[in-house]
Every structure is written in structure tokens, then in C-alpha cells.
Design goal:
The protein is α+β, with helices and mostly antiparallel strands. It is built from 21 helices and 22 strands. The strands form eight sheets. It has a five-stranded mixed beta sheet. Strands 17-18-22-21 form a four-stranded mixed beta sheet, covered by helices on one side. The chain has a three-stranded antiparallel beta sheet with strand order 16-19-20, with no helix packed on it. Strand 21 and strand 22 form a beta hairpin. Helix 8 crosses helix 11 and helix 12 runs antiparallel to helix 13. The two termini are about 45 Å apart.
Length: about 675
């Protein structure tokens, strides 16, 4: 619990919120709280879920979690250190009435701040008065409005720009657009500010960006709001000026905390949902499917706001309304090429889900992508998937968006890099505004410009996004045994799990518990015993039953031979001799190519023809592997030379590797096992 004091290294690289500006600012304002490093810093997260999944029966249950930021980075967001404090019952979302349900928790937080509670320190064997403070809340964007009191709907949905926003209502699309709201964030001398054709037509941009209000300024605004009577829908309690001069719907209960205005970040923008919604807009528009932002109504708005005549709707000779093809939308052949490639993409074990299952080749579209699928696609696949399919003028900005989210989601945040990205992301969004129609730019695209600021002030996003809590809610959903009493089932299962987790700490090392269970890819004994080669001593085990036997292709055989020879320590001496003999005729960039092209044949000639005096077992290795391999229904787990686990899975799996483990024993027989 004192890691943040003893092990924290203050540098420009942030790996934990304890190194962040928000943490240090609070230390400066409240030195009495910092005096005892055992005082606790907390984060609150909540979101709603339907215990029946996507069924027609609507139900919204809202668990409230608390996380402890005193712990080291590897423990901070672990499920065992995430505490379920409240379960807000359904069947409807609490909306702005969430303050009523949070009242007991807020009262406890106020008591923990003012007087603290007597706590036993098991390390020092003494009692002390422990105090606690709440650093921030973590929610999705609709939840942001519920806990902050600032509505995240409508023209003023951005909680940073507030009433200074430039968002406007699309006449035909009938939605709020944040198109051309970002040139004001550019440097005053930037050429985009004077562009009157690629943004809102005929408009120059001379204005400064809207100021970010500090906690004291927001408190003064909130203090002037009238009281809201919760739980009475029959009474109109809309605050005067709502939607015109402000977006306040209530005074949030969190302002009752005496220190709340001293937090530099009070409510986090959830990077997980921002990234997913940003990606959804990109992929649907590029694929030009039914969810595309570039629809007929969008094209009807173009003449009103933009000077892009090549995209305007027109009538053909038969009188039919036609929509011209856009350069950012793929045609049928390119969509088929992309979908076919996605069907064949495979990832390392545990890296991503089976994205191939989300590809509909018949309709040439992507369906059912989860948040993490969008996370992987956005950061890893966009630069590859769209290269050659889209013009460079469009592929470039999309790749920059991919690089932005990759840098933003890095576990090691460089403060200087985030300051640079805070400027670059504005220019990237402006580049996209020169490409896509106004309907493309909803609030999620706009919020991206504020994410680097929060990362620079609050630290890595891994401590401030919804991924760990979404996983927790998935586990809670699995514990619901009685659908008539959802919340009671969750609470009962959670308490039982807490008891068993606590008791398991006292079990012996020979008892497998949640704390001591082996990892998923774990083998107790070597896959092949009695071997004289280091490369074949790796532990592993087959998964599933032996389904069939097949022959390797010539390409697979060459790859297997080359891999074994280049990674077997017993061959290192011959590899050095090969490099010296062949190196005379090579440039410095050629050794790897020469090994790939000639080493296998050179090795066989050297060993089998008696040109090398050494370990006789090398002759068995020179005989090469067997052409016949065993295929297991679920694959085989083999630990590679670096100690990493890899799964050789069946051909229908989405992740793992397709390599075959080559085996050669002292009898001269060699074989391969998949």
C-alpha cells in the first residue's frame, strides 16, 4: 500500500497514476493527507449491463466498483483488488437519479476523508487512522453525464468545450455534427485556418480554442444551480437555459466531497468507447454498408456546408437519384479483397479474438465486432488492411489515427510525446474533415482531441478505462442464477467468491487455487524426453485427441528444417563456420539471406559427407524431419526458445502459429508433431 512512495520513480515516462500531474497536484494542495503514505487513493467505476444479453427483454443493472491506486501497476487493476461496493437495481437505468443510490457510498467517502477509520497495519503490527480520497470516476460517455451532471447529449455534449462548442445541427441528417470544430485548436499561423473550400465553405477561422475550466471555476457554476428533486418524473425540473447556454441537469453528488474541486481530472473520458465508436465510423463508411455515415441524407447536406461538387447527388436520365462514388469508399472488388484477407488473418495466442468470425463474405461486411476487436483493428490492422485499397491521401490520415491510439494506449506514457500528440491529433482530425462528410463527425471524433490531455495529466489509460470493469461485469453476469432476483444473485456470488479467495490464501502450495493455478499454456514435463538436442527439450503437451495424419508441403518442410538448424545450440559452431566461409562474398546486409538460401544444404553436405568432425548425433539431425505429421484436434502447446508459450492450433482457429515441432531421436528416426 506504500508502493507509490517507496518505489515511485519520478520521470517523464509514466507507468502509474502516482507519477502523474494529477496525483502530485493533490499532494501539494493537501499535505496532511500525504503525511501518511498508507492513506488510500480510490477510483470509482460504473456501467450498466443487461443480464439477458441482447434479448428483447430490457433490463439495466448497474454495479459500482472501487479500485485502489496505492498498489503497484501489476496489481492495481487486477480483479482480486477491484471491489464491488454497490449494485444499483433495474429494470431501468438510474439516469440522473444515480445520486440517490450513491448516497451511502458518498457518506462513507466523506467520513473516510474527514475523520478516517481505525485500521490494522498487518506489516507494522499496529493500528492507525486510515483516510481515503476519490481521485476520479470511470464510465462510458452516457455514464459520464449521469455522474458529472453535465448532459452528454445535444450540441454542448463535450464536457471540456461546454457552451463554447462550435457543433451544429445538420438540416437533413437531423443530428449534431462537430465538423469544422477543430481548426480553432490549431496554431494561429496554420494554413488550414484560411482554407475556405475544404471545411465549412466560405469560412475563415481566427478564434482561439475554448478554455479548459479548473475545478474552482466549475464549482462556482455548480453552486449556482438550483436543487433538483430526484425520483419525481411528473415534475418538469429542467434547469433554465438547458441546451441553450449550458447542459447542466443537476448538481452532482460528488461535489459534496470537500476536495473534489482540487482534482485535476474528476471524470475520465473512456478511451475504450471513444476508440470503438471512432473505429465504427471509419469501417462502416469505408465499407459503405448500411451503417455508413455517408448516406443519402449526408450527401443532401453537402451542398449546404461544403464545397465538394463531385460528391453532390444528381438525377440521371431516367430521373433516379444517384449518389456518386466517393474515394474513401471501397468498391465491391476491394471489399472482397479486404474481407478475404481478414478471414485469413491470425494472431499470437491470447492476443485477439477470432476476427474471422465477424467477416460476412456473402454480404461483404463486418458484423459483431466487440470493443477489443475494434481496439486491435484500429491500432494494428488499419495501416495494413487499407494500404493499396485506398488512395494515399486517405490512407495516410487513417494510419495517423491508428498511430495516435497506439501511442495513447501505451502502458508507458511519455509526457513530452503526449504534448506533441495533443497538437498532432487536431491536425489529423482536420485532415479527416477534408475527406469525410460532416455527418461523419459526431462527438466521439471530437473527444479524441482531449484524450492526450487526460493521459498527460492522469497517466496511462490502462488505469482509467472501462476494459477491466467490463470483464468484471461479464463475470458477474455469469453468476446470475435467479433471473427474478438479479442483484441478489450477484451479491451472493460476489460475497461467496470473496470468502473463498480469502480462505485460499491459507492453503498449502500443493493445493491448486485461483492464486496458484498454472497458466493456460503450461506443461509439467518436456514434450519429448531422452533427447540430445536442446531445441527438442521444450515442455509442452498436445491438446485434444489425435485427429489425423498428413504430409508436409515442400515449403513447410524447408521452413521446419531451417528453423530447427538456426535455433539449435548444437549447430552454432557450424553456423559460425558457414558465416566465415560464405561471408567473403557477402555485403553486411546479406548474412540472413545466405543462411535462408544455402545453410540447410551446406549443413547436410558438411555432416553427412564426413567433412565435419564433431558430435555424431548431428548426423541424425542432418537426415531431416519426417514428411508425416500428426494433427491434433485442438492443437499442441509448445514453449519456444524464449520461454513463451505458443499454440499449434487446428486450421479453424484464429490465433496461434502454424509451425510444426520437429523431432529427431538418437536412433536416426526423425518425425514431426503438430
Amino acid at each position: 500500500m506504500t508502493w507509490h512512495l517507496k518505489c515511485r520513480v519520478d520521470s517523464e515516462i509514466l507507468i502509474h497514476p502516482a507519477q502523474s500531474t494529477a496525483w502530485k497536484h493533490f499532494d501539494t494542495v493537501h499535505p496532511s493527507f500525504v503525511a501518511d503514505p498508507r492513506n488510500v487513493r480510490l477510483g470509482l467505476a460504473t456501467d450498466g449491463f443487461n443480464p439477458w444479453g441482447h434479448s428483447s427483454r430490457s433490463y439495466s443493472c448497474w454495479p459500482v466498483f472501487i479500485v485502489v491506486y496505492n498498489l503497484p501497476p501489476e496489481m492495481c487493476m487486477r480483479p482480486e483488488f477491484t471491489f464491488l461496493t454497490l449494485v444499483i437495481s433495474g429494470p431501468k437505468s438510474p439516469g440522473k437519479n444515480i445520486d440517490v443510490f450513491l448516497r451511502p457510498l458518498i457518506d462513507d467517502l466523506k467520513r473516510l476523508w474527514s475523520s478516517g477509520v481505525e485500521t490494522f497495519d498487518s506489516f507494522r503490527k499496529q493500528n492507525f487512522t486510515m483516510r481515503a480520497m476519490l481521485m476520479w470516476t470511470i464510465t462510458d460517455f452516457p455514464g459520464y453525464g449521469m455522474v458529472s451532471g453535465w448532459s452528454t447529449h445535444g450540441r454542448m455534449s463535450c464536457p471540456y468545450c461546454m457552451e463554447m462548442t462550435r457543433a451544429f445541427y445538420l438540416q437533413n441528417g437531423r443530428k449534431i455534427s462537430f465538423f469544422d470544430c477543430h481548426r480553432q485548436f490549431l496554431p494561429a499561423s496554420h494554413s488550414y485556418r484560411m482554407d475556405t473550400t475544404q471545411f465549412l465553405k466560405g469560412r475563415f477561422e481566427f478564434g482561439p480554442p475554448p478554455p479548459r475550466l479548473d475545478g474552482h471555476s466549475v464549482r462556482l457554476r455548480v453552486a449556482a444551480l438550483p436543487d433538483v428533486l430526484f425520483g419525481n418524473p411528473s415534475v418538469n425540473q429542467t434547469i433554465v437555459g438547458f441546451g441553450e447556454t449550458h447542459n447542466w441537469v443537476k448538481r452532482s453528488i460528488f461535489w459534496e466531497l470537500p476536495y473534489w474541486e482540487d482534482n485535476l481530472i474528476r471524470h475520465n473520458l473512456d478511451v475504450m468507447h471513444c476508440e470503438k465508436n471512432f473505429f465504427d465510423n471509419i469501417i462502416h463508411t469505408v465499407m459503405d454498408d448500411s451503417s455508413s455515415k455517408d448516406n443519402v441524407k449526408s450527401r443532401m447536406d453537402l451542398p449546404l456546408y461544403c464545397d465538394r461538387e463531385e460528391l453532390h447527388l444528381y438525377y440521371d436520365r431516367s430521373g433516379s437519384l444517384c449518389k456518386p462514388n466517393a474515394s474513401y469508399a471501397l468498391n465491391t472488388d476491394k471489399k472482397r479483397c479486404l474481407c478475404t484477407w481478414l478471414k485469413q488473418v491470425r494472431f499470437p495466442d491470447g492476443y485477439a479474438s477470432n476476427i474471422a468470425c465477424c467477416v460476412n463474405l456473402a454480404e461483404l461486411r463486418l458484423v459483431g465486432l466487440k470493443s477489443h476487436d475494434c481496439h486491435i483493428f484500429m491500432q494494428r490492422l488499419i495501416p495494413i488492411a487499407f494500404h493499396g485499397l485506398l488512395p494515399d491521401s486517405i490512407w495516410g490520415p487513417l494510419t495517423e489515427v491508428s498511430n495516435f491510439f497506439r501511442a495513447l494506449c501505451s502502458p508507458n506514457v511519455n509526457i513530452k510525446d503526449m504534448a506533441v500528440w495533443e497538437i498532432k491529433i487536431v491536425e489529423i482530425i482536420c485532415k479527416l474533415e477534408r475527406i469525410f462528410p460532416p455527418s461523419f463527425f459526431d462527438c466521439m471524433e471530437h473527444l479524441a482531441i482531449h484524450l492526450p490531455f487526460e493521459a498527460r495529466i492522469g497517466g496511462p489509460v490502462q488505469f482509467r478505462w472501462m476494459y477491466p470493469f467490463e470483464r468484471q461485469m461479464h463475470k458477474l453476469k455469469q453468476t446470475i442464477g435467479n433471473k427474478n432476483h438479479v442483484e441478489a444473485s450477484i451479491v451472493e456470488a460476489y460475497i461467496l467468491n470473496e470468502i473463498t479467495e480469502f480462505c485460499s490464501r491459507y492453503f498449502g502450495a500443493d493445493v491448486e487455487t485461483s492464486w496458484s493455478k498454472p497458466p493456460r499454456n503450461f506443461a509439467v514435463v518436456p514434450l519429448y524426453r531422452n533427447t540430445e538436442f536442446s531445441i527438442f527439450a521444450c515442455p509442452g503437451h498436445p491438446m485434444g485427441s489425435h485427429s489425423q495424419t498428413r504430409c508436409l508441403t515442400t515449403q513447410e518442410m524447408k521452413a521446419a528444417e531451417l528453423y530447427v538448424l538456426l535455433n539449435c545450440r548444437e549447430v552454432d559452431a557450424l553456423l559460425s563456420i558457414f558465416d566465415r566461409e560464405v561471408g567473403v562474398y557477402m555485403t553486411p546486409s546479406d548474412p540472413q539471406k545466405a543462411r535462408t538460401r544455402s545453410f540447410v544444404m551446406w549443413f547436410k553436405d558438411r555432416v553427412l559427407n564426413g567433412h565435419h568432425e564433431g558430435n555424431g548425433v548431428l548426423q541424425y539431425l542432418a537426415l531431416g524431419p519426417s514428411w508425416t505429421v500428426n494433427v491434433y484436434r485442438e492443437g499442441a502447446t509448445v514453449v519456444d526458445l524464449n520461454g513463451n508459450a505458443n499454440d499449434d492450433v487446428d486450421e479453424n482457429a484464429s490465433e496461434g502459429n502454424d509451425g510444426y515441432e520437429t523431432r529427431s531421436d538418437a536412433s536416426g528416426n526423425s518425425s514431426e508433431s503438430e
